Amino acid sequence: YSAGQFFFEYLVVVSLKKTSDGRYEPKITYQFPKRENLLKGQKEEEERLLQAIPLFCFPDGNNWAPVTEFTSETFSFVLTNVDGSRKIGYCRRLLVSIPPPVHPSLAHFFLPQILDEVEKRRQISMAVIYPFMQGLRESPFPAPGKTVTIKSFIPESGTELIELTRPVDAHLEHVEFQALLQRLSPHLILHIFASAVLERRLIFLAEELSVLSQCIHAVAALLYPFSWAHTYIPVVPECLLDTVCCPTPFMVGIQMRHLERVLDQPVEEALIVDLCEGKILRAVGDEEEILPIKLQNEMLTSLNRHNNNNNIHTSEQVNTLVSEAFVQFFVRMVGHYASHIKWSKNGSGTFQERAFCKAIASKTNRKFVKKFVKTNMFSLFIEEAEKSRIPQEAYFQQKITEYHEQKKHRR
């Protein structure tokens, strides 16, 4: 998401096409841009990507039939490359025979706004999509806090200007904490956070694809400045439900209609969350004891403050308040990491894990950190920190500095 990148890699339109035996299959019916003159390896990568997209746009199995009513929804999916890198796709699913309801675009999340514009043009002609997407692709991707203006022409409507603003805090892009808070109590959110921090298996259940993707993205965002480093599938296609038998950590979303099949699987030590009823169906049992109790209570107070504060109206305000509570947790727990990286003359750093843990005065905090330093997400964070004296996560570093200044002031 650095400035200068493209807004998107591909736009594809996926439609259900009737096969000779009367079934329906999702097929790509439009693709932009069409890539030519690709090298063999690039062509194979593109083919893999384009074969997977229809499956994730229609993850509900193959029992599709014509319908007269369909609720339009926007959701996301993640495709993981062989090298572990991820591509995020955003899907607007709708019934094309009736006009879709207008979706209010989230102020901090401009991809739905782009999908709205694409849909306007698709209703006129597929040919009208091309110039808009070409103009968008040629526009500079804005830096955090900046706005880009795109000229948009629609036949009989003329030219209009579309402004897309990127949020100042890049770590809150494409995140909607409100979706999580509407479905789960603060107490349960902390249980989920505790399980995610120790990289356990997490299964989320809901019927709506949009609910699954919004809530799972929100849970992953609670881990900032760390990143979930394992299997991550916001919406699992029916044919991949066996993913829940994986012995390694995962964070997945599954439609509620598959609940019995999931419960019948030999799932080892997983947290299973029902987003429809707002409850945990299955837990390991120690979720209450993972986080240091004092900090756990402080985060609970912050989340409850959101529930009791009627002055919070915008999604940005909600995101800032919720994110701040969890960022402060990591500032207090591991904010001293930089002072325990020993630098050699050639500029490479070595993390002093033992001294880092020993520097924590509180026994309960130290107990938690000793487990946390063994996780993949912490190891990857430290690997990046060892490469350069310049912090990778500027926002996190800013919060660490603020915390230390406040401590000095109190003294």
UniProtKB/TrEMBL annotation:
It comes from the Eukaryota. The keyword GTP-binding does not apply. InterPro entries: cDENN_dom, dDENN_dom, DENN_C, DENN_domain_containing_2, Tripartite_DENN, uDENN_dom. GO terms for molecular function: guanyl-nucleotide exchange factor activity. Residues 9-392 form the UDENN domain. GO terms for cellular component: cytosol; nucleoplasm. The keyword Metal-binding does not apply. Keywords: Guanine-nucleotide releasing factor. This is DENN domain-containing protein 2D. It comes from Gavia stellata (Red-throated diver).
